[in-house]
Every structure is written in C-alpha cells, then in structure tokens.
Design goal:
With 133 residues, the protein is α+β, with helices and mostly antiparallel strands. The protein is built from two helices and six strands. A hairpin with a 5-residue loop joins strand 3 and strand 4. The relative contact order is 0.10. Belongs to the DPH3 family.
C-alpha cells in the first residue's frame, strides 16, 4: 500500500456532525477518515473515488472525544433487563430449592410413618402372642 502524502491532522477539515476528517484529493474528491478510526489507531485516510491514500499524523490526546455510542445507551436497557431476569431466576431457584426441601421432608415423614407402623405391628403381634399362651 503506497501513501500519496503525509498530512498533519491540523491541515485537515473536521466535520463535527459526521465526526469525519477530510482533505482535498488531487482527483477532485476528498480523503476521508472517521474520528472513530483515528481513536482505533488507524492513520490512513482513503479517497472513495480513486486509489490514493494519505497518512494522517496526529496525537491521540489532541483528538476530540468520541460522543457516547447510541448502542451503549441501548445496551444499558438490556443490562437492566438482564438484572431483572437474573433476579427472577434466583427467586425461581429459591422456590425450587424450597420445593425440593419440602419434598425431602415428606419423604422422611413417610419413612417415619412406615417405621412407626412396622413398630406398632410388631408390638401388636408380640402382645397377641403373649395373650394366647
């Protein structure tokens, strides 16, 4: 990739609405590079009408700040939605755990009833044998 020229960013025109730097190209169009590309470390501005490219010389600390990304604002809502879903899942898990504990108690109760019944049958059988003799 050959570079047509190296240009200081101060020599370029910044469009704050489009967040793009431009510089006149010999073909009549303009070299373009976005503020986001510059913040991402890209330093090559391209002309959309021809194959020429320029290297943009800049210091990151001199760049305007990027405005908040609209996608980030949209992501905040799903984050709140995710928190709500997580809370619902936690509550659902607590209910499931409590249900399992109650079921375990019923199983233990049935086991105790069975053991008590067996004990009563044994005593009754023993008492019946003792009264026959």
């Amino acid at each position: 990739m050959s570079i047509y020229e190296e240009i200081e960013i101060e020599d370029m025109t910044f469009d704050p609405d489009e967040l793009i730097y431009t510089y006149p190209c010999p073909c009549g169009d303009k070299f373009r590079i976005t503020l986001e590309e510059l913040w991402d470390g890209e330093d090559i501005a391209k002309c959309p009408s021809c194959t020429l490219r320029i290297a943009v010389i800049f210091d990151e600390e001199d760049l305007p700040e990027l405005p908040p990304d609209e996608d980030e604002e949209e992501e905040e809502e799903p984050a709140e939605e995710l928190q709500t879903k997580m809370q619902t899942l936690k509550e659902s898990n607590r209910i499931k755990q409590a249900t399992i504990q109650v079921a375990a108690l019923f199983v233990q109760l049935e086991l105790l009833q069975t053991m008590l019944f067996q004990h009563l049958v044994e005593r009754w059988t023993t008492n019946c044998r003792g009264t026959r003799q």
